[in-house]
Amino acid sequence: MARPLTKKKSSGELYVRFGQIESEIDEVLAQDQATIIRRSQLTEKSLPEYLTSECLVHLIRDSIRRDESAIYNTLLPILLGRCEVILRRKIPESVPDFENLRQQVLDAFVLLIAQDSSTESKAGLDYYEAAFNRAFRTLRIDVLRKYKVRFINTVPLSEVSNVDDEDPGQWDDKALQTPASHADRMMFAEFLDVLPEEERRAVVLRYVLGHKIESIDEAETTVATLCNVTGRTIGKLLKNAKERITQLKLEDR
Amino acid sequence: MIETRHGSAMPLQDILYQLSMAQDVPDAELIDEFVRLHPEHAMAITDFAVELAVDALRSEQLMPAADTSQVSPAVSRAMSKFQNALHGLRSRKVTATPQRADGPVKIDNPFSKLDTASFRRLAGELKANSLFVSKLRDKGIAAATMTAGFLDFLASKMAVSLDVITAHFSATSATIPLGQFHKSEGKPEAGVQESFEEAVKNSNLTEEQQQFLLSL
């Protein structure tokens, strides 16, 4: 039987695996080493014997704890190969220093795995057994975020001094809203990456995540409260972002 | 719905995992919940949520299957890093056992090699101050509360291996180094440890310095 997860949510509730993953792990734990290795090499997700990444994480953790190097030395490169596919898609060659960033994510992941067997482990790999792709994106985004902090000068957002005495809502424009089609969303994401950090943050909070620009209710979380500036400053940032994106769209035609 | 509890002691790393695990794409309501639950990390949560949202814009295409027949150079390098880390951790376990029977075995304190100027230079490179580095030197910070990212960063700035850093922090309780300079009014007290987050907050660091160290 699969070892229960121990990581808890803020509510105190334990993380659990999906029932299908639980059954898959139970099944594979009863199989011999040769079968496990053969199954791990299947690449077609539609095959009934395909092993999910959640299951691979479980097997790798267990084999490290039991010091079964033949298993973890076979399964870990397969799991890392899957991670690499995700990274090629998520950190494309258009991203500066893409190779180094992909490597940093892989390295951070293997360190997490190595540390899992130590007494100092905080069961961080439980997240990967519960929902691998969501957990791995956390690590990936965290590495990219730290890279930005270290190598790109991000300054805290300050009030824009020359804001006209205008209603910030006037820049609440449909031109900045998340497009419906996949291709347009991909292009929108590329445009966002070109914006200065503070404009990008304002656009995403307003138009992708759906926060209000500001509110008369001081307790309400808005783009302005999250960025710790006034609604007018956010309005100015959205105006600038709209102008930049409009220009980019024209250049893209 | 997440239970409302202000100022939790949960490490930032766990908060970010939980935010990411909660929904495929976060929305305003979810971010609001997390910010209210962990106001001390509001900025980090917001930045992370922005990245999650942008990431989701790119995520809807089917990914090709991984080719398991060949191991790429990047995977080889990661495997090598994994083997080194695992070996380092296991070596620590092996050497730790006889130490208890024969009395404490000396583990070199990598900070003891630093003179005053190097010590201050390190503080600057870490975007911290001398007080915070003193806490690191004196093992005044609980090792288990330090993030892997911070340990890695510290090792790179001190130009020593991660093993040296982890061995220093994992050596039993806090110790008072001999022959070291102490700027505080009293000598540091052995055995009293702060969490990494407490140490960052209680070391007279600027908001920017705190945010940087906690983001590692």
What is the rounded distance between the termini of chain A? Answer: 58 Å
Number of helices of chain B: 10
- Gross morphology of chain A is elongated
| Spatial separation of the terminal alpha carbons of chain B | 29 Å
Tell me the helix content of chain B: 55-70%
Largest interface: A-B, 76 and 69 residues
- Helix-strand string of chain A: HHHHHHHHHHH
Poorly predicted runs of chain A are none
Strand content of chain B: under 5%
Largest sheet of chain B: none
Overall radius of gyration of chain B: 21 Å
If you had to describe this structure to a student in words, what would you say it looks like?
The complex is a heterodimer of chains A (253) and B (216). Chain A contains eleven helices and no strands. Chain A is elongated. In chain A, 59% of the residues lie in helices and 0% in strands. By secondary structure, chain A is mostly helical. Chain B has 216 residues and is mainly alpha-helical. Chain B has ten helices and no strands. Chain B has helices at 12-22, 28-37, 42-57, 73-102, 116-125, 130-137, 148-158, 162-170, 196-201, 207-215. Chain B is globular and about 50 Å long. The two termini of chain B are 29 Å apart. The model of chain B is unreliable at 1-6, 99-104 and 173-191 (pLDDT under 50). The chains are: A mainly alpha (253), B mainly alpha (216). At the A-B interface, helix 4, helix 5, helix 7, helix 8 and helix 9 of A face helix 1, helix 2, helix 3, helix 4 and helix 7 of B.
